[in-house]
């Protein structure tokens, strides 16, 4: 186990992810975690993350000196590096020049364990105002840049390492190597952790937390909630009940498909309950046009439906959600990032919830990691590699007011689009694709008659982590065929657009 102590930086999850990529298990804890707790966990190494503060100011996050005297190797990154120097008697203050972006770092100590097999001059990602001007007693400088006298320092005897730049960011060309040098080389971790260990560890933690309690899981049939549900079922078996709310905003036939896989006829024992709440959601959404309001309504209504189901099955202690890390960041809960959208899985929780606690077993994972966990759990590939579908569903793919009529239009158009994309083999290469309904109607002509109908927008994006994305190059013939089929087969549509916008500035979904 390696512990990542979170000081509020933007890249903290990336640190954890890179450590996992070295096949080392790691957990993130707040910098407020007590020394006793850390000793109890007996980690093989500790990483202090970056953060937005200045370590020499009175109310900045800090940690006691004792942390560095446990005999456990510590690696400080950015703020963590400055803090280590400050606490141990070095000098950190504001520099004249702010370093930001890709920067050439010159390694001064060729035999430093951290820089083993790293080039002598290497490009690193810098982002700091404060600078280490003097290393603490017992430390030596191991790297510098043109503007930064101490880009890295170490006290080899005490196994304390400080790095001013961000090895966790991919712009740091040899960053993963450095982190791997720390966790494998310095800390002596075995590097034999795999996703199955995540599954095992989560099962253990869930059992411990849940005890004999009853668990209710919000199953949507998407990758995230399916993985969460199967994980929970593995951990607590019959104590789990899965409720699938058909909110009437699913893709065409999806409700029945989800029921076929996870329901009583399927392969899993999930105590599956389907709630048909279509009319209820349409009712609440009538007349509402504002995207955030729509998201809040859908999210809140979801919770209400769960509460009602929970009452029917008796006391429930825990609610499971398939929240994954990018949801957490975009909702503004992950460190410093601003709120982009209130994600269905995280935002929009009503003030009172009739559950003791929420369990989010995938909260620290990126999408590709969730998929790996899904495969470990034996979930079929076609489900694991299914396109992501947002919690609020077609509600955020219909711009403006949602009505049953519009839902039907977008479901039919989307089904055609997906059918043709699959037939063209695009489902293997494109990250996410779907049809959306714009709120625009325009004039057309069909069979000598004037039409005044809706415009459908087709979206297809390539993305690795869904935080950034680019419009995919869908072959023109495919687009043309989709256009022609939609216009001929879907009543109420007379125009089709292809969305070329990347993310940023656009988002993947329309609202
Ligand atoms: P955006 O539109 O924010 O989408 O670029 C990024 C990824 O997240 C999905 N998404 C959601 N998933 N609840 C979810 O579970 C939501 O509220 C939500 N909003 C967007 C989206 O489909 C894309 O894959």
What would your notes on this structure say?
- Pfam families: GATase, GMP_synt_C, tRNA_Me_trans.
- One of its GO terms (molecular function) is GMP synthase (glutamine-hydrolyzing) activity.
- Its EC number is 6.3.5.2.
- Pathway: Purine metabolism; GMP biosynthesis; GMP from XMP (L-Gln route): step 1/1.
- InterPro entries: Class_I_gatase-like, GATASE, GMP_synth_C, GMP_synth_GATase, GMP_synthase, GMPS_ATP_PPase_dom, Rossmann-like_a/b/a_fold.
- The protein has a nine-stranded mixed β-sheet, with helices on both faces. A five-stranded parallel β-sheet has the order 12-11-10-13-14, with helices on both faces.
- It is globular and about 85 Å long.
- It is α/β, with parallel strands linked by helices.
- The chain has three domains: 2-186, Rossmann fold (3-Layer(aba) Sandwich), CATH 3.40.50; 195-384, HUPs (Rossmann fold); 398-498, GMP Synthetase, Chain A, domain 3.
- It has helices at residues 12-21, 35-41, 79-87, 175-186, 195-210, 223-236, 254-262, 278-285, 291-312, 325-330, 367-376, 381-384, 404-423, 476-489, and strands at 2-6, 26-30, 45-48, 74-77, 91-107, 121-134, 140-144, 152-155, 160-163, 215-218, 240-246, 272-276, 318-320, 357-359, 432-446, 449-462, 470-471, 493-498.
- The chain contains 14 helices and 18 strands.
- The longest helix has 22 residues, at 291-312.
């Amino acid at each position: 186990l390696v512990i990542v102590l979170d000081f509020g930086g933007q890249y903290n999850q990336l640190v954890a992810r890179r450590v996992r990529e070295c096949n080392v298990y790691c957990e993130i804890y707040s910098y407020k975690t007590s020394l006793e707790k850390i000793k109890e966990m007996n980690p093989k190494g500790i990483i202090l993350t970056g953060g937005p503060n200045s370590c020499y100011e009175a109310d900045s996050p800090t940690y006691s000196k004792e942390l560095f005297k446990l005999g456990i190797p510590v690696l400080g990154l950015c703020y963590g590096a400055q803090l280590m120097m400050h606490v141990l008697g070095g000098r950190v203050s504001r520099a004249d020049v702010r370093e930001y972006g890709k920067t050439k770092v010159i390694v001064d100590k060729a035999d430093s364990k951290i820089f083993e097999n790293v080039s002598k001059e290497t490009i690193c990602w810098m982002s700091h105002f404060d600078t280490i001007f003097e290393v603490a007693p017992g430390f030596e400088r191991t790297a510098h840049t043109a503007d930064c006298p101490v880009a890295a320092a170490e006290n080899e005897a005490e196994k304390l390492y400080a790095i001013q730049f961000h090895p966790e960011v991919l712009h740091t060309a040899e960053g993963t190597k450095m982190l791997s040098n720390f966790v494998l080389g310095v800390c002596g971790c075995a590097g034999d952790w795999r996703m199955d260990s995540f599954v095992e560890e989560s099962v253990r933690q869930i059992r411990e937390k849940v005890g004999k309690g009853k668990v209710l899981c919000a199953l949507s049939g998407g990758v995230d909630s399916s993985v969460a549900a199967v994980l929970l079922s593995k951990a607590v078996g019959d104590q789990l009940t899965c409720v699938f709310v058909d909110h009437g905003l699913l893709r065409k036939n999806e409700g029945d498909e989800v029921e076929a896989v996870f329901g009583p006829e399927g392969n899993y024992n999930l105590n599956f309950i389907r709630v048909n709440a279509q009319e209820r959601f349409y009712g609440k959404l009538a007349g509402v046009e504002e995207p955030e309001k729509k998201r809040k309504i859908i999210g809140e209504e979801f919770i209400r439906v769960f509460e009602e189901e929970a009452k029917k099955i008796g006391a429930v202690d825990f609610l499971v959600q398939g929240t994954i890390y990018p949801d957490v960041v975009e909702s503004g809960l992950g460190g410093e990032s601003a709120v982009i959208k209130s994600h269905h899985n995280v935002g929009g929780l009503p003030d009172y919830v009739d559950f003791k606690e929420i369990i989010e077993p995938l909260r620290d994972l990126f999408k590709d990691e969730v998929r790996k966990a899904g495969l470990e759990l034996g979930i079929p590939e076609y489900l694991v590699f299914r396109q992501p579908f947002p919690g609020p569903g077609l509600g955020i793919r219909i711009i403006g007011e949602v009505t049953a009529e519009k839902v039907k239009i977008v479901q039919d158009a989307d089904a055609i689009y997906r059918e043709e994309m699959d037939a063209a083999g695009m489902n293997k290469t494109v990250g996410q694709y779907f049809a959306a309904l714009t709120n625009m109607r325009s004039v057309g002509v069909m069979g000598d008659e004037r039409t005044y109908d809706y415009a459908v927008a087709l979206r297809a994006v390539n993305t690795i982590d869904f935080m950034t994305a680019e419009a995919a190059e869908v072959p023109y013939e495919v687009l043309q065929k989709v256009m022609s089929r939609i216009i001929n087969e879907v009543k109420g549509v007379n125009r089709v657009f292809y969305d070329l916008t990347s993310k940023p500035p656009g988002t993947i979904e329309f609202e």
